Amino acid sequence: MIADIDDVLNTTRAVRKRLDFGRKVEREVVEECLLMAQQAAVGSNKEDWRFVVVTELEVKSRIAELYRQVWEQTVSAPLAAGEAATVARLSPSMRETEEDKHRQIKILEGVKYLVDNLEQVPAILFACSTAPTPRKSMGGSASGYYGSIFPFIWSFQLALRSRGLGSVLATAIAHKAPEAAKILNLPEGCHVIAMVPFGYTVGSDFKKGARGPLDLIVQWEQWF
Questions:
Q1: Which fold has domain 5-69+110-203?
Q2: What angle, rounded to 10 degrees, do the helices at 150-162 and 27-37 form?
Q3: pTM of the model
């Protein structure tokens, strides 16, 4: 257990390569983390969120196949074709410093590792919502829609970290949300928003992530 909240906040990283595939996650531990996450802020105090925890290999394998399709369609093929938006967002060649290029290479390697091994991850949480899907991605109900589920997800990830488990927020599964919903047998009107693969970690020596200076992203009162 990690009791220091500052330590938990500073060292909760996206864990992919260091997930222990051979160690089962106890159901009671998962439920503890879910109960803690349930205290997260939620819009209008309406628990429109729904969650499915998957541990069975057959189901994980079907989800893994979907995830590999997402990788091919949104990362691998566009990068190979030199698609401008994807190259600008993901290609290490677009990073300014050698350090940033190396970091981006490692990130892509980590994502690909998860893509190739998703079915081996001990457990996967699927975060879903029964609220009406926003018509627009910005404004209106969109902020409340997504803002009502991501606090839960992050609290769940923090609770996992405090108990020696690692996780990663994988939003790309939303590209195959209808297919995932069918595999998970979700009721009509319940939509997959993200998935969180998780498990115990190989070692626990996680450090702060590399971030830029605060004054590059924060201004007081107004922006300049």
A1: NADH Oxidase (3.40.109)
A2: 130
A3: 0.94
